[in-house]
């Protein structure tokens, strides 16, 4: 059986790592990025080198700013951009899609697959593609220059869910050929509510705002996660767990997630963040004008909070982070973020709609 052909959409840290990893395993890989800067030189060299936890080199077939060229003839599209770009990408790529393609949002953050599917259905309701989302990026990685990335860690397990739900197993089986850590989630409710980035990233960044304003460098996870910060994280996590219970899905706590993904020994959350070797050396952003706010608040905390509100669940820990981000960045993330309307959901029937979408055999008109 022929290996699937991949298109990686996004040439940031995750995108270049995905492309280099896939290409080094012998897959035909094209890469798309909206701006030229991220792929400067790659159009000619077509070579991506990884070091750290992965020491590999792969040669991709194409690096381009032409989306149509990048996805033409590809079996699997891996979207590795900030989730704030999912809305635009889904609208722009839909004219070039064909029946049978698989689209993997890595990660989807909160209800990324739902928003993506909804936008496809608006343009081409009869198109039969499978949209998937993962609950996290498989790698802890940083690009050092175009075509070179340092991989700090590779996760032991990455949950994946497809829309429609019954196709999850087939997609996981395909992807396991190159990355065996992909595991089937119960549904996109599990991967979306299980969005870990929405808890870790904005909490640490916003509650260390004073340090950032003063220009004090610090390791993001090991030094930024003070006991006070961890206490707020656990408050957000408790709210997330309540949402999951109301929707009838089980998601890991923050501590359980760290044990599962990185093979850590079960300790308190503070100790695990402090001592996780994968997190050592990852420095904090020097500004709040960063994807940890723009992405993780607008496509993580906002849809979680709005979904909770529609179900009658109060989320003071989440809401305080969103309102702080609004104030610091002078942005209304409540309006700019992933709202119920953008996901095709009715505030008065959220639980029923979400459970109905999970049970559908065909998602072309579901969202």
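Q: What amino acid sequence fits the structure above?
A:
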């Amino acid at each position: 059986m022929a290996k699937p052909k991949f298109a990686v959409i996004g040439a940031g840290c995750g995108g270049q790592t995905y492309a280099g990893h896939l290409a080094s395993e012998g897959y035909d890989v094209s890469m798309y990025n909206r701006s030229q800067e991220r792929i400067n030189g790659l159009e000619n060299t077509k070579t991506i080198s990884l070091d750290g936890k992965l020491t590999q080199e792969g040669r991709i077939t194409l690096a381009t700013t032409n989306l149509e060229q990048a996805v033409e003839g590809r079996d699997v599209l891996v979207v590795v951009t900030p989730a704030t770009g999912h809305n635009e990408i889904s609208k722009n790529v839909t004219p070039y899609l064909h029946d049978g393609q698989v689209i993997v949002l890595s990660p989807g953050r909160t209800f990324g697959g739902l928003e993506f599917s909804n936008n496809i259905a608006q343009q081409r309701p009869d198109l039969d593609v499978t949209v998937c989302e993962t609950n996290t990026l498989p790698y802890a990685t940083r690009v050092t220059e175009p075509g070179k990335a340092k991989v700090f860690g590779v996760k032991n397990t990455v949950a994946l869910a497809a829309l429609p739900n019954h196709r999850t197993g087939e997609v996981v089986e395909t992807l396991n050929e190159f990355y065996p850590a992909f595991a089937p989630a119960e549904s996109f409710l599990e991967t979306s509510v299980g969005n870990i980035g929405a808890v870790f990233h904005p909490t640490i960044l916003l509650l260390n705002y004073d340090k950032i304003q003063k220009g004090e460098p610090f390791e993001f996870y090991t030094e930024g996660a003070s006991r006070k910060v961890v206490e707020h994280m656990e408050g957000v996590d408790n709210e997330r767990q309540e949402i999951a219970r109301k929707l009838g899905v089980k998601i890991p706590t923050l501590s359980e997630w760290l044990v599962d993904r990185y093979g850590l020994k079960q300790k308190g959350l503070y100790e695990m963040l402090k001592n996780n070797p994968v997190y050592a050396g990852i420095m904090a952003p020097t500004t709040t004008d960063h994807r940890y706010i723009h992405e993780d608040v607008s496509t993580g905390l906002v849809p979680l909070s709005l979904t909770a509100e529609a179900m009658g669940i109060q989320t003071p820990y989440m809401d305080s982070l969103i309102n702080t981000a609004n104030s610091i960045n002078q942005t209304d993330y409540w309006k700019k973020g992933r709202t119920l309307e953008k996901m095709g959901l009715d505030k008065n029937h959220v639980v029923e709609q979400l459970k109905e979408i999970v049970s559908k055999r065909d998602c072309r008109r579901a969202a």
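Q: And what stands out in the fold?
A: The longest strand covers residues 139-145.
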